[in-house]
Specification:
The complex is a heterodimer of chains A (448) and B (424). Chain A is globular, with a radius of gyration of 22 Å. Chain A is α/β, with parallel strands linked by helices and 448 residues long. In chain A, helix 6 links the parallel strand 12 and strand 13. In chain A, strands 1, 2, 3, 4, 5, 15, 16 and 17 form an 8-stranded mixed beta sheet that branches. Chain A has a 6-stranded mixed beta sheet with strand order 8-10-11-12-13-14. Chain A has a 3-stranded mixed beta sheet with strand order 6-7-9. Chain B has 424 residues and is an alpha/beta fold. In chain B, the strands form 2 sheets. In chain B, strands 1, 2, 3, 4, 5, 14, 15 and 16 form an 8-stranded mixed beta sheet that branches. An 8-stranded mixed beta sheet of chain B has the order 6-7-8-9-10-11-12-13. The two termini of chain B are 24 Å apart. Classes of the chains: A alpha/beta (448), B alpha/beta (424). At the A-B interface, helix 8 of A face helix 11 and helix 14 of B.
Chain lengths: 448, 424
C-alpha cells in the first residue's frame, strides 16, 4: 500500500510527506491591467524606455513598446515612472521575528537555540501573519521573501518562501510549489552560542555539519530502500533527518550563512563530500575574495551592500562586493536580514552599483536590478515564475514614482499575481495587520 | 596617515598639495548659512574659509580646483556616532562607549577618553564626506558625556572640537536603567538632579561627611553641575510621546537645556517640542513599531518636526550595518530619505551640517561655508543625497582628507582573482 496524501502508510504509521502544511494561497482578485508610457527595467535584457505591460489572470501576457489591451482593462499611465519586477528578498526573518519585540512580547521565534543541529524545525511554524513588518515590506516593493531560521545553529531548520499578502495563516502566504530551503550557519554565531556545550570552535562547527550529513546519508538509504519495497515496518521517522535527506535528494535548497572566504571554501568541500549543492551563501561579506570559486560551483551570493564591522568576521566588508561578484560571473543578490533594510533593497543595490562604477566595474541599472529580482528568484528556485518582466511570468510588478535607484523614489503601486495590493496614493486601502488596529497610528500618504 | 596620503596621491584622482590658499571654482555652492550660489567660488586660506560667493577674487598663488558642474557643501556633521570609540562591535576590547558607573549612573564618564584616532573606520567616514561627528556614550540611566570630534588627521587634542557637549540619559528604557518602570526612571533622575543641586551648595559639608548620602558619586554630582546650570544640554534618549512629554516636564522643573535623541513619536508632540525649543535627533529610515514605546515610528518624523519649527538633526535610525561606526558616511542617504518623506531638501541638508553644529555648540567652527569657519568642504559629483553621487574632494581644515581606506585596500587587492599579495 502506498502512503496516502495525508502521509499515512501501512498500519496507519505516518511516513515522510513532502507537504504536510500545504500552501492555501489564492491570488487576490484582479482585473486586466495595462501600465503604459513607463520605463521598464525587465531584469531580462535592456530596459524598455517607453513601454507597456499587460497583466491578465495573474500573468504578464504582453510586454513591449506598446500592448494590445482588452477593452475592460484598467489603464495606468506610467509617465515619468519606472516598472520593475517585484522585489525578492532571500533573507528575511519577518513574521518569525515579529514587531514589537519588547522583552515579554515573545515575538522572537527565529532561533531554536537549544541544540546546534535543529534540522527538525520549520520556520513557517514561527511565522505570525499579523506581524506589522509585512505590509511595510510590501510597501517597499517586496513581493516574495524567504523567511529563514536564525544563525545560532549549525543547521537551523527549514525556511519558507512567502508571498507578501494579507492572510490569517502563514499557509495562506506560502508560495505554491516553492521548494523549501535549509538554513546552515558558519563561524562566530554557532561557536558563540554553544561555547559551553560545543561546538566552541570553527573546527567543532565543521565536525558538527559532517556528523549531521553522515546520519542523513544513512537515513536516506533506509527510507529509499523502504520506499522502493514497502516491506515490513517503515523505519522510525526523524524530522531532522527527513529534512537533511531531502537536501541530499536535491529537493531542498541550502542557504548557508557564512561570512569568511576560507569558511565558505570549507563549506563547498563539505557539499562535495556529501553530494549536495549550496544554492546561496548568505551575508558572504568576504564573497568577493572567492568569487571565482563561487562561479565555478554556481553558488549565488546573498550579500549586504555595506554592512560591516559589527563583528570581526564582518570587518572585511566592502561596498564593491556586489560589483566584484557580478564581474566574476556570480549571481549576486542584495539581501536584507533586516526588516527595515528590506523596504529599501533597491537603494542598497544603488550603493553597490555606485561603488562598482567608482572602482572601474561598469554596472548599469539593467544589471543591478537583477540583484533584487531574477538572481534572488534563482536562489529560491523560482526563476521560471518570478523575477523578471517577461511574458508568462507571474504578474508581480512594482510601479516606482521615479528611477528606483534614486533616493527620492518609492514604490507607488505593487501587484502580486496581477492583483494591486499596495497603492501609496490611496492610504485608506492600506493593508493594516490586526496588531496595528488601534495600536499604531494609521499611515499617511506621504508627500512624494 | 602621511603614508596613506602619499599612496592616495599616486593612486587617486589629482590629490591636493597642502596649499595655503585653495580656490574651488565654478561649483553650485550650498553654504547652508546663506542662499545657494549657482556658480561660485569657495576661497580657503590657512585652513579657514576666506570667502564664498559668485564674485570672489582669486589670488594668483591659489591652487585651483575646477568644480564646474559639481556641488559643494560644508563637510557633513553626523550627530550620533561611536566613531573612534568602537572598532568591531562584538570585540569588547575595542568598544569604549559604556561605563559601569554606579547604579546605572556614570555622569562623569567622558567617552572621548577612550577615543582612538587611529581607528580604521575614520577614513571611511572622511571619504564619505563626513568631517565632524558627535561621539556619545550609551547604556544605563545616565550614560556619560558626549563630545564633538573633528576628523582632522591628528591626535585627540587636535580632534576634539568641544567637550562636553551633552550629558546622555534615558527615559524610555526602564530595563536599561535597571528600574522597574518609567515612573521609577523619572524618580531616579529627579533624585539625582536634586542631590546634584544640594551638593552644589554643600560641597564643604560633603567633604566633611556632614551631608545625608547622595544618590550619585561625587564625580557624577560634579559632572551634573553644568547640566543644572543650563550650560550643557541633557541628551535624553526617548521615543514614546508620553515619555517625551515627561522629559519636557523634567526640563521645565530643573531649567535644563534638553535634546531629544531617538524621538520615534516626536511628531506627535511636535508643537510642544517647538515651543520648548528642544532639538530632536532622529532618522528617516525606520517605520517599524519595533517596541511598544515606538508604535508611532514613521519616516515622515523628521519632515513633520522641521515643519513645526523643531530643530532637527538627522542621524541614522534604521539600526543596521553599524550605522554609528562603520556607516557614519550613510547619513547623507538618511537625509535623502527624509526628503522622500516630505522634508524640505534645504532643511535636510541643514540637518546634517549646521543644525548639529549649532545644537552641540560648534557652529563657530563647522557646519557651514562662511568666512572664518574651518575649511571643511566637500566637492560632490552631483546631488549629495543620491547614491550615484561620489565625494570627489574632501577637505578638513583646508587639507585633503581623502585617502585609501582599509576597504579601498581590500577592493584593490581582490579586484583580480586570485589576489595579488605582493606588488610586482
Amino acid at each position: 500500500m502506498r502512503p496516502n496524501a495525508a502521509g499515512v502508510g501501512p498500519g496507519g504509521v505516518s511516513v515522510p510527506n513532502a507537504d504536510p502544511f500545504p500552501s492555501t494561497y489564492r491570488p487576490y482578485p484582479s482585473r486586466p491591467t495595462v501600465i503604459r508610457n513607463v520605463a521598464i527595467l525587465t531584469a531580462a535584457g535592456p530596459a524598455i524606455r517607453n513601454g507597456a505591460v499587460l497583466l491578465e489572470n495573474g500573468k504578464i501576457t504582453q510586454v513591449g513598446a506598446s500592448v494590445t489591451a482588452p477593452a475592460d482593462a484598467v489603464v495606468i499611465d506610467g509617465s515619468g515612472k519606472y516598472l520593475t519586477p517585484g522585489i525578492i528578498d532571500t533573507h528575511s526573518h519577518i513574521g518569525a521575528g515579529g514587531a514589537p519585540g519588547d522583552p515579554g512580547a515573545q515575538t522572537d521565534d527565529v532561533n531554536e537555540a537549544t541544540n546546534p543541529v535543529t534540522a527538525n524545525v520549520w520556520v513557517e511554524h514561527s511565522v505570525w501573519p499579523q506581524d506589522p513588518q509585512f505590509p511595510r515590506s510590501l510597501a517597499g516593493g517586496v513581493t516574495t521573501l524567504q523567511v529563514l531560521p536564525g544563525s545560532a545553529n549549525l543547521i537551523g531548520g527549514r525556511s519558507v518562501v512567502l508571498k507578501v499578502v494579507p492572510s490569517r495563516t502563514a499557509q495562506g502566504m506560502k508560495f505554491p510549489g516553492a521548494k523549501y530551503g535549509l538554513k546552515m550557519a558558519c563561524g562566530e554565531n554557532p561557536k558563540r552560542v554553544y561555547a559551553q556545550r560545543g561546538p566552541s570552535t570553527r573546527m567543532g562547527n565543521v565536525a558538527g555539519y559532517r556528523a549531521a550529513w553522515i546520519a542523513a546519508e544513512r537515513y536516506r538509504r533506509q527510507w529509499d530502500k523502504w520506499n522502493a519495497t514497502h516491506q515490513g515496518d517503515p523505519p522510525q521517522r526523524d524530522l531532522g533527518l527527513e529534512t537533511l535527506a531531502e537536501v541530499l535528494r536535491g529537493n531542498i535548497l541550502v542557504h548557508n550563512h557564512c561570512y569568511r572566504a576560507d569558511e565558505m571554501a570549507t563549506m563547498m568541500d563539505i557539499a562535495h563530500e556529501f553530494g549536495y549543492k549550496i544554492r546561496s551563501f548568505h551575508h558572504g561579506v568576504e564573497a568577493y575574495k572567492i568569487a571565482d570559486l563561487l562561479a565555478r560551483d554556481s553558488i549565488s551570493a546573498s550579500v549586504w551592500a555595506d554592512w560591516g564591522a559589527f563583528k570581526l568576521e564582518a570587518a572585511d566588508a566592502v561596498r564593491g562586493n556586489l560589483g566584484l561578484l557580478t564581474k566574476a560571473g556570480v549571481r549576486a543578490i542584495t539581501h536584507s536580514d533586516d526588516a527595515s533594510g528590506e523596504q529599501r533593497l533597491v537603494q542598497e543595490s544603488a550603493k553597490g552599483m555606485a561603488e562598482a562604477n567608482r572602482i572601474g566595474i561598469p554596472i548599469t541599472e539593467d544589471e543591478a536590478i537583477k540583484w533584487n529580482t531574477i538572481n534572488p528568484a534563482w536562489a529560491l528556485g523560482l526563476e521560471d515564475r518570478i523575477g523578471s518582466i517577461e511574458v508568462g511570468k507571474n504578474a508581480d510588478v512594482v510601479l516606482w514614482s521615479g528611477d528606483p535607484f534614486s533616493v527620492y523614489s518609492r514604490p507607488e503601486k505593487v501587484w502580486i499575481d496581477g492583483a494591486m495590493l499596495f497603492d501609496r496614493l490611496d492610504p485608506s486601502q492600506r493593508w493594516r495587520t490586526d496588531f496595528e488596529l488601534g495600536f499604531v497610528p494609521p499611515p499617511s500618504g506621504g508627500t512624494r | 596617515m602621511r603614508i596613506a596620503i602619499t599612496i592616495a596621491a599616486l593612486l587617486l584622482a589629482p590629490a591636493l598639495a597642502d596649499a595655503q590658499t585653495i580656490a574651488i571654482t565654478g561649483a553650485k555652492i550650498y553654504p547652508v548659512s546663506g542662499p545657494v550660489i549657482d556658480r561660485g567660488t569657495v576661497l580657503i586660506r590657512d585652513g579657514k574659509i576666506a570667502a564664498v560667493g559668485a564674485d570672489v577674487a582669486i589670488p594668483s598663488d591659489a591652487q585651483r580646483i575646477d568644480a564646474a558642474g559639481k556641488v559643494v557643501t560644508p563637510g557633513l556633521v553626523n550627530g550620533a556616532t561611536t566613531l573612534g570609540v568602537q572598532e568591531i562591535g562584538a570585540v569588547r576590547t575595542t568598544v569604549e562607549t559604556r561605563a559601569r558607573g554606579r547604579d546605572q549612573v556614570a555622569a562623569a564618564f567622558s567617552v572621548w577618553d577612550g577615543f582612538n584616532p587611529a581607528s580604521v573606520l575614520l577614513q571611511g567616514a572622511r571619504n564619505g564626506g563626513v568631517t565632524s561627528v558627535l561621539i556619545a556614550p550609551s547604556g544605563g540611566l545616565i550614560s556619560g558625556q558626549a563630545a564633538m570630534v573633528h576628523l582632522v588627521d591628528g591626535d585627540l587634542r587636535d580632534m576634539l572640537l568641544r567637550t562636553p557637549v551633552g550629558m546622555v540619559a534615558t527615559i524610555g528604557n526602564a530595563q536599561a536603567a535597571a528600574a522597574g518602570s518609567r515612573g521609577e526612571v523619572l524618580l531616579r533622575l529627579r533624585e539625582i538632579l536634586e542631590d546634584a543641586r544640594a551638593y552644589r551648595t554643600r560641597r564643604a559639608d560633603y567633604e566633611r561627611a556632614q551631608t545625608r548620602p547622595f544618590a550619585a558619586s561625587r564625580l557624577d554630582l560634579e559632572a551634573l553641575q553644568p547640566v543644572l546650570a543650563g550650560t550643557e544640554p541633557l541628551v535624553i534618549d526617548v521615543n514614546k510621546a508620553s515619555d517625551i512629554e515627561a522629559a519636557l516636564e523634567l526640563g521645565r522643573r530643573y531649567n535644563l537645556r534638553l535634546i531629544v535623541a531617538g524621538g520615534a513619536e516626536a511628531w506627535m508632540v511636535a508643537d510642544k517640542l517647538a515651543a520648548a525649543k528642544v532639538p530632536v535627533l532622529t532618522g528617516a529610515m525606520n517605520n517599524i513599531p519595533e517596541a511598544f514605546a515606538q508604535l508611532g515610528q514613521r519616516q515622515e518624523n523628521a519632515g513633520l518636526l522641521a515643519k513645526a519649527g523643531v530643530p532637527v538633526v538627522i542621524v541614522g535610525n534604521a539600526g543596521g550595518g553599524d550605522e554609528e561606526a562603520f556607516n557614519v558616511r550613510n547619513v547623507r542617504f538618511e537625509a535623502g530619505n527624509a526628503v522622500a518623506y516630505g522634508m524640505d531638501a534645504t532643511a535636510a541638508l541643514r540637518a546634517i551640517t549646521l543644525t548639529p553644529a549649532e545644537v552641540f555648540g560648534v557652529s563657530d567652527r563647522v557646519g557651514s561655508l562662511a568666512p572664518g569657519k574651518d575649511a571643511d568642504v566637500v566637492v560632490w559629483s552631483g546631488d549629495p543625497f543620491e547614491f550615484a553621487t561620489q565625494p570627489e574632494h574632501v577637505l578638513i581644515g583646508g587639507r585633503d582628507a581623502m585617502a585609501r581606506s582599509r576597504q579601498d585596500l581590500l577592493e584593490q587587492r581582490y579586484k583580480s582573482l586570485p589576489p595579488t599579495y605582493r606588488r610586482p
